Amino acid sequence: MALTVPRREHPALRCVSTALLLAAIALPGATGCRNERPTMPPDADLWRAADLPYLNVGTSLEAIAFDGNAGYILGSGLAKAGTDYLLLARDTSGHWLQRRLADPPDNAVLVDLAAGATGVVVGGHLQQDLEPCLVHDERNELAASIARAGIGIAVIDGDDALMIAGGQAVGGALWLSRAPGTWSVEATPLSATHAGGFADVFVAGERAWACGYDEGSDTPPLVLALDPAAGTWSRVPLGEGILGRTLRCVAARDDGTLLLGGLADGGSGSAQPFLRLREPGGGWVDLEIPDVAFLGSINDLQPAADGAWYAACGGTTGAGTDGLATILRVSGREVSAELTPFHGAIRQLGRDAGGLLHAVGCRITSGGGLHQPLLLTRN
Predict the structure, then answer these.
(1) Sign (positive/negative) of CA torsion 256, 338, 65, 301?
(2) What string of H, E and C letters represents the secondary structure of 292-347?
(3) Would you call 332 exposed, middle or buried from its count of C-beta atoms within 10 A (0-12, 13-18, 19+)?
(4) Would strands 258-267 and 60-67 be described as parallel, antiparallel, or unpaired?
(5) What b/e sequence results for 162-178 when a residue is b if at least 16 CB atoms lie within 10 Å of its CB, and e otherwise?
(6) In 3-state terms, what secondary structure has residue 22?
(7) What pLDDT is recorded for position 257?
(8) Which pLDDT score is estimated for 14?
(9) In angstroms, rounded to a whole number, what is the distance separating the alpha carbons of residues 299 and 248?
(10) By the 8 A CB rule, do 254 and 244 touch?
(11) For residue 304, what pLDDT is reported?
(12) C-alpha closest to that of 363 among 371, 353, 355
């Protein structure tokens, strides 16, 4: 469906005080029913709260993506589908300003985005629709909404040369784009008669990985890797101890190192975050996470130029409770927290052309449980 791109203007917007945001992420008093508290990191000034336009209380920032220094943030609020989204774009001065998409479908719920040289691509699902999987692509002069069967698109990553969207459907939903506005459905080794889906995709040049689940498999958690020469997807062996885990994110390096994150079933309905590393030529190793009992799920992973990895943490543990939020740094096999854990979630991480790391999410107020939007940048 071709849609007209409206003229976009930047209204005057009031900025949220950095000082207030820094105060907001401090952990209030107790962390639960126990008297223990999570560890305070040695350097609490590694991440600073960035200025945002004035945003309504109840807004949560869900995703961030860059193409060069052009950046976009997707958020959600309390309104109805079709208007229940927030889009921020970074201007040439580094300020974040509110924008609007070019007429997304009225029944769309948008959950993730990726950035191209000429615009943004968002993914999600359509409510009460026969073809609910949705990608809304604004990289052409006329925006295009592509809808297909399934449950919904959950994640998008990549750039104009290679962009991948993943979601839930019978046999899984994995779409590929090598040109703005053009998307093809990928063949995968998932069961064609059972539900399957992808919680994360990671694109690096011509290579890509996707993680999720396959209900028709003996080992439901799965990671697929794209062979750039053959253009086919194949399963990555995950080793022993993978059962009972929910994969939520995957990232890779050029040397073949893989890092997985998500939630591991601890029995009796409890779950804890995990990080699982595979180095070139080696097997899988579970990394020790500090204060793991306090924290929510690992939600996103981002490799950095210095050889370290960063992990976004927080939100639901899958056991009816919310764990605390922080940002973890993985150096070799050592894991450390870079933020004092707080009530809320770090949803996603992004890196701009200058190498700066950015994190988006929300803080949850201790009184009313309201979401306060949060954008952090690493110094």
Answers:
(1) positive
(2) CCCECCEEEEEECCCCCEEEEEEEECCCCCEEEEEEEEEECCEEEECCCCEEEEEE
(3) exposed
(4) unpaired
(5) bbbbbbbbbbbbbbbbe
(6) helix
(7) 96
(8) 35
(9) 6
(10) no
(11) 94
(12) 371
d(CA 328, CA 306): 15
Position 92 scores a pLDDT of 85
Ranges of residues in the chain with a pLDDT under 50 are: 1-35
Question: Can you give the pLDDT at residue 21?
Answer: 42
Q: Which residues contact 344 (CB under 8 A, 6 or more apart)?
A: 25, 314, 315, 324, 325, 361, 362, 363, 364, 371, 372, 374
Q: Provide the 3-class DSSP secondary structure of residue 14.
A: coil
- Joined together, the tokens standing for residue 142 give 């006329």
User: 360: which 2 tokens?
Assistant: 């988006």
**185 DSSP assignment:** E
C-alpha–C-alpha distance, residues 190 and 172, integer Å: 7
* Chain centre to alpha carbon of residue 23: 25
3-state secondary structure of 20: helix
Q: What is the pTM of this model?
A: 0.88
Q: Compute how many other C-beta atoms are within 10 angstroms of the C-beta atom of residue 205.
A: 11
Q: List Cβ neighbours of 73 (8 Å cut-off, separation of 6 or more).
A: 61, 63, 64, 86, 87, 88, 96, 360, 375
Tokens 């994110």 belong to which residue?
249
Q: What is the largest CA-CA distance in the chain?
A: 57
pLDDT of residue 40: 63
CA torsion, ordered 359, 207, 249, 82, to nearest 10 deg: 70
Please report the pLDDT score of residue 6 as a whole number: 35
**Residue found by looking up tokens 């697929």 in the block:** 224
176 and 182 in contact (C-beta within 8 Å)? no
Residues 6+ apart with CB under 8 A from 60: 75, 76, 77, 345, 347, 361, 362, 371, 373
Instruction: Copy the structure tokens of residue 263.
Output: 């939630």
Q: For residue 140, give both structure tokens.
A: 């052409």
- How much is the pLDDT for 212? 96
